[in-house]
């Protein structure tokens, strides 16, 4: 791998991290808490695309020339120095299809760090006209080389044996040929811990930040080939990858944490600083955070277990132990719910900022998250129904079987799932990657009183629904840490088919799940396609006719009991076959 990163300085000590406190020897001042650097989870979780032409393993060698070509094709306004490119320039430079180039723009818009960037706030029809800044695109392309941390095995395999299904009969040729069997085996793999993932991401950045800085830096005139300097504007592009502060807290610009830019006069342009100095400072802070993570994990493993701020599911009928937690800062986790119903409202998500939410390893349950979210991840669930409120950035559903997902969102990515049905109101094409089987997509089919308010809050548009335009990419994920046989990476993922309109039904959210606040939504905000509307009207008409016939039919008492028994049996069979039996869990114990 070619390395053109700035050389670390050894003649001068690195400046102290911004958290270092200074105090007068005569006036004792309480030291402020350490402020640590953290990786942004978003580009690593929602920003990786399994498109081989986006992945460069030679460091800066290819990306440097790509950056130069993008700059030559870019446009820049007189009011700002940001060079922007549209999908046509991206397709030409990277030699990818127009559809994949548009996918790159859509993906970056969902993980971009700067909420004031025009791409973040663009309507679906405006995204290509707005384009993306070249340097943000270059950072996005660099991190496509990231390899995810391998999932762990669950500590208690026996505990999930009765809720997690055995390997399906239709594993197919791919599972027989590739290590994807690793995540399809009976001992289901579970998501790595937050601490493990954060350490893995920081270690990646520790190794590659030199190259990334070299791609962002300018060469100082007359200073020789090693004189790379970084301006305050270029430093802010690193905000795509890292931030300072507590998880979930408001993130300040990187330049305000950098000692060499912290006190810059806003009316005067800051003088660029040597890239080597910036690299030293970043590596020092990363090392400090990695040490802190190690100490925290060690203390947790050796100390008593404390369940802080846990939520209790509404019902817990013969379930395994469940864990659902929401912190004032950081994401919300719903984990291990089994044979229960669980509901979370906007008021349950503490803190003022929109959250990311994770639903992990839930089985034979119904999960309702009736709240506005930035991101949502559903992982390792089976035989469950999961209702997501309004998700303004991205949803990822991974390693699920026989799950119904109902989501109103900007975009959704489906990876390594089987026999799942997705009822979607999405502004972008559903992305399907990995080893999927028997997936179905359908139009959005529910509502709750605050749904439209939440959609407006996060920017989901009800007039644009691309639920029936799934885009399938490679069946092999180049971002996992597994090796794959030659040629398999060219195999396209199995796409989803549209649900038969005659099988489409509305999903009714119980009134008592509506929460304390009353909203204005009285119906599904996403218009139903004609075929589904006609089918729904026909079903309602047939139901009315059947009710009329039953009412008018004169039967002996014994025949009435026989008919009633038959109807109950058929209804019970339908409840189990359709999965709607899960909704009845919320009635148990009431």
From TrEMBL:
Composition-biased stretches (Polar residues): 317-329
Keywords: Cytoplasm, Cytoskeleton
Biased composition regions of type Low complexity, renumbered to the chain: 1-12, 20-32
Region (Disordered): 1-32, 297-329
Major localization listed first in the record, in broad terms: cytoplasm
Signal peptide stretch: none
Family: Belongs to the TBCC family.
Protein name (record): TBCC domain-containing protein 1
């Amino acid at each position: 791998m070619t390395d053109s990163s700035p050389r670390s300085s050894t003649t001068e000590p690195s400046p102290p991290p911004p958290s270092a406190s200074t105090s007068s020897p005569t006036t004792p001042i309480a030291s402020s808490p350490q402020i640590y650097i953290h990786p942004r989870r978003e580009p690593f979780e929602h920003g990786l695309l399994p498109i081989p032409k986006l992945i460069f393993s030679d460091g800066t060698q290819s990306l440097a020339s790509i950056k130069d070509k993008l700059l030559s094709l870019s446009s820049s306004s007189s009011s700002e120095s940001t060079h922007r490119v549209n999908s046509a320039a991206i397709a030409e430079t990277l030699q990818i299809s127009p559809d994949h180039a548009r996918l790159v723009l859509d993906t970056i818009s969902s993980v971009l760090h700067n909420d004031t960037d025009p791409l973040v706030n663009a309507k679906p029809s405006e995204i290509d006209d707005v384009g993306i800044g070249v340097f943000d695109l270059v950072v996005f392309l660099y991190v496509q080389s990231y390899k995810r941390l391998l999932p762990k095995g669950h500590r208690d395999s026996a505990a999930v044996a009765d809720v997690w299904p055995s390997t399906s009969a239709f594993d197919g040729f791919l599972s027989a040929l590739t290590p994807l069997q690793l995540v399809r085996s009976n001992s289901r793999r579970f998501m790595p811990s937050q601490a493990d993932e954060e350490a893995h991401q920081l270690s990646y950045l520790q190794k590659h930040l030199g190259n990334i800085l070299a791609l962002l830096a300018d060469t100082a005139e007359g200073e020789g080939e090693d004189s790379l300097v970084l301006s305050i504007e270029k430093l802010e592009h690193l905000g795509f990858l890292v931030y300072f502060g507590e998880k979930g807290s408001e993130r300040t610009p990187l330049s305000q944490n950098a000692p060499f830019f912290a006190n810059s006069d806003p009316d005067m342009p800051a003088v660029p600083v040597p890239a080597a100095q910036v690299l030293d400072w970043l590596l020092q802070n990363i090392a400090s955070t990695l040490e802190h993570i190690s100490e925290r994990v060690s203390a947790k493993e050796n100390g008593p277990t404390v369940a802080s701020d846990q939520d209790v599911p509404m019902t817990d009928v013969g379930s395994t132990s469940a864990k659902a937690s929401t912190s004032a800062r950081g994401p919300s986790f719903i984990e291990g719910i089994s044979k229960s119903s669980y509901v979370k409202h906007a008021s349950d998500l503490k803190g003022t900022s929109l959250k990311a939410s994770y639903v992990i390893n839930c089985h034979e349950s119904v999960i309702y998250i009736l709240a506005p979210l930035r991101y949502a991840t559903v992982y390792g669930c089976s035989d469950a129904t999961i209702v997501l409120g309004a998700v303004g950035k991205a949803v990822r559903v991974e390693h699920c079987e026989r799950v119904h997902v109902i989501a109103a969102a900007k975009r959704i990515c489906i990876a390594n799932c089987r026999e799942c049905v997705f009822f979607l109101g999405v502004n972008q094409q559903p992305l399907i990657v990995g080893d999927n089987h028997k997936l179905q997509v359908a139009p959005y089919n529910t509502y709750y009183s605050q749904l439209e308010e939440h959609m407006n809050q996060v920017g989901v548009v009800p007039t644009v629904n691309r639920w029936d335009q799934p885009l399938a990419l490679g069946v092999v994920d180049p971002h996992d840490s597994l090796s794959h046989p030659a040629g398999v990476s060219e195999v396209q993922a199995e796409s989803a088919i549209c649900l038969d309109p005659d099988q489409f039904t509305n999903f009714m959210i119980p009134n008592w799940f509506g929460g304390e606040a009353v909203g204005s939504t009285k119906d599904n905000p996403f218009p139903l396609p004609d075929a589904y509307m006609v089918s729904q009207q026909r079903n309602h008409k047939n139901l009315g006719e059947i009710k009329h016939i039953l009412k008018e039919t004169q039967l002996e008492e014994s025949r009435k009991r026989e008919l009633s028994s038959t109807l109950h049996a058929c209804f019970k069979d339908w409840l189990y076959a359709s999965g709607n039996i899960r909704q009845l869990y919320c009635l148990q114990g009431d």
